[in-house]
Predict the structure.
Amino acid sequence: MKPSARLDEKNWRFEYKYRLSVEQYLRVRNQIRAYMEIDEYTERAAEKKYLVCSVYYDSLGLDAFNEKIDGNSDRIKFRLRTYCRELSQETTIRAEMKVRKNAITEKYGTFISGAEYEMFIGQKRWPKIRNQVMEEFERYVHLKTLNPVLLTEYRREGYRSRAREEIRITFDHRVKSAHSRTLFPEAPHFHEHHPGLIVLEIKCIKQQPGWLRRLVQQNGLMIMANSKYVQGMMVAYPALVTPGWSA
């Protein structure tokens, strides 16, 4: 599977996240189908769910983790992402920078080659900086002494608006994480985040349309913090867990 740039280069400004039981997931999925259709990546995937793997970067002091836990409104997060488990000449890899300012989230990304990925993992620099995402990624890696610390994996089921509204809905299944210094570890020891639950994410440029707000209310869905990175760190690094923290 090789997603085009169009899917991830959209700079979504609002993100709403929920955790659903299987029963809620089936009900919500059926209800959105009057307004949303399965996207082309999901359509091509086995079982209509495509693989997403991300390796997250953090400092030696785990600044990104602690900033999220402390509720800092302005944050920046770096990760490398792929859609398969093995590195080859055909592997799609992206370098991504996610910026959070209060309630607004923007994501910037660029596709990189396998050779660029291997050099960056090994030497913390790109063979050639081709755009601002690569420039900022490399700059922060050296400025903040960032290293890859966590691999997260899940199966994503994505939907796009039938009316071509600026909205995207995804269901993430079997979210799990493992300690890793690479996107392609040989034998990662995964820990599932919330067994039996599915993560619903709503991304939109403007506020949610009326039909979607009604759907959320009718199903009693509650917005919650759902950082895959923080959850992953808490299950992969149990010593970090402190009572009262939430992710």
User: Anything to note?
Assistant: The chain has eight helices and ten strands. The chain has a mean pLDDT of 90. The longest strand covers residues 147-161.
